[in-house]
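sorry for the late reply, my laptop died twice this morning and i had to redo everyting from scratch. anyway the thing you sent over, i finally got around to it. pasting the sequence first so we're on the same page, its 166 residues, then the predicted structure underneath. double check i copied it right bc i was rushing
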Amino acid sequence: MSTEADNLDPSPTAEAEPQEWYAPGLSFACTQCGNCCTGAPGYVWFDDDEAQAMADAVGVDKREFYQRYAKRKFGKWTLDEVKYQGQYDCVFLERDAQGKGRCSIYETRPTQCRTWPFWASNLASPRQWAEAAQDCPGMKLPDETGGKFVPIEDIRIELAKNPDGL
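ok and here's the structure:
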């Protein structure tokens, strides 16, 4: 005769967490090409501490930084843009004689920039990642080699730094 205790599984089965498509990791190495800093109009959000760091980098006080390089949108601060050949460049994107762009404040760029390309929008699907990779030479598709291998744990850390997912 079997009892209820005999029918209990001694190893409880927890529901498995869904596995992200990028669980094996991805490859990315910033080439500082500037492609992520230009295109359609957009927003580069930053906080007050980041404003101070950027102000120090360009040699102005924070008040002047806000006046010269930023604007308020939706109750938050975003970096300004300049129009260049029909595109909208971040105010800190410098272009050489051939038009190649590079961030002039790379070391003090905002979190939103630092977490590229590990944004929720890019990680939503392999297709989204592939679309972003078309304009970013540092991003590699899962079946490509090159770049710097970024394990899932590091991708999750980058996602957590940028809760807005931009």
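The chain has one domain: 24-161.
thats about all i looked at so far, will dig more tmrw
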